[in-house]
Write a structure and sequence with these properties.
Largest sheet: none
Number of strands: 0
CATH architecture of the largest domain: Orthogonal Bundle
Keywords: DNA-binding, Transcription, Transcription regulation
Domain HTH tetR-type: 16-76
GO molecular function: DNA-binding transcription factor activity; transcription cis-regulatory region binding
Structural class: mainly alpha
Number of helices: 9
Strand content: under 5%
Shape: elongated
Low-confidence stretches: 4-8
Distance between the termini: 75 Å
Pfam families: TetR_N
Order of helices and strands: HHHHHHHHH
Mean pLDDT: 90
CATH topology of the largest domain: Tetracycline Repressor, domain 2
CATH class of the largest domain: Mainly Alpha
Protein name: DNA-binding transcriptional regulator, AcrR family
């Protein structure tokens, strides 16, 4: 039997470029379908790479998913920092938090399936939980830096409770299709919840 000649030759790319292409293809795949329905072979094909190469770079499907999450959450953190840094020095604590929330909602709207996955039972591997826990700890510390609340267990519980409120409200918004006309009411509700949890905005930041 003669060898096939109808296959396009695979491009020779350096490791960093090929890895980035696989990661991008995986991100697109996980945005389109739940974790369980995405195959590494399909991701590799979309990235014009072999399945073996995808496993070589990322180890397992779960590790590939975790790598997608880590890259996105790091990018999200960078965009939050940039948004706050762009504000005037005398910006109120309330408006700084509002800027952060706007970035967070934009991220959820761009990746609704992967954003909502941790709240839907069985939709993520354990490796993803590790990444999300690390990111949430950083989020909490950044919020403390942003607000500079008083020390004490009362404020620690208030901050963690507020994250729970935002998660629940944002999940409702995402499942409703991320309606644009409800974006600002969601931000306002989250700001009100934080003020209620911590006290007067004037005492913060």
């Amino acid at each position: 039997m003669s060898p096939r000649t109808d296959r396009a030759p695979r491009r020779r790319l350096d490791e960093a470029t090929r890895r980035a292409m696989i990661l991008a293809a995986a991100g697109a795949a996980f945005d389109e379908a739940p974790y369980a329905r995405v195959s590494v072979s399909a991701v590799a094909a979309a990235a014009e790479a072999s399945e073996a190469l995808a496993y070589r770079y990322f180890g397992t499907k779960a590790d590939l998913y975790a790598a997608v999450l880590r890259a996105r959450l790091e990018d999200l953190a960078d965009r939050r920092h940039a948004a706050v840094a762009a504000l005037p020095a005398n910006t109120s604590a309330r408006d700084r938090v509002a800027a952060v929330l706007a970035i967070e909602l934009g991220h959820a709207a761009a990746h609704p399936l992967t954003w909502a996955a941790p709240f839907l039972s069985g939709n993520e591997p354990p490796e993803a939980l590790v990444v999300r826990r690390e990111a949430r700890a950083i989020d909490e510390q950044e919020l403390r830096t942003l607000l500079r609340p008083a020390e004490g267990a009362r404020y620690t519980y208030a901050l963690w409770g507020w994250f729970g409120f935002v998660d629940g409200a944002c999940l409702h918004w995402v499942q409703a299709g991320c309606p644009q006309d409800e974006r600002w009411p969601l931000v306002e509700a989250a700001l009100g919840a934080l003020q209620g949890a911590l006290g007067d905005w004037g005492a913060l930041g």
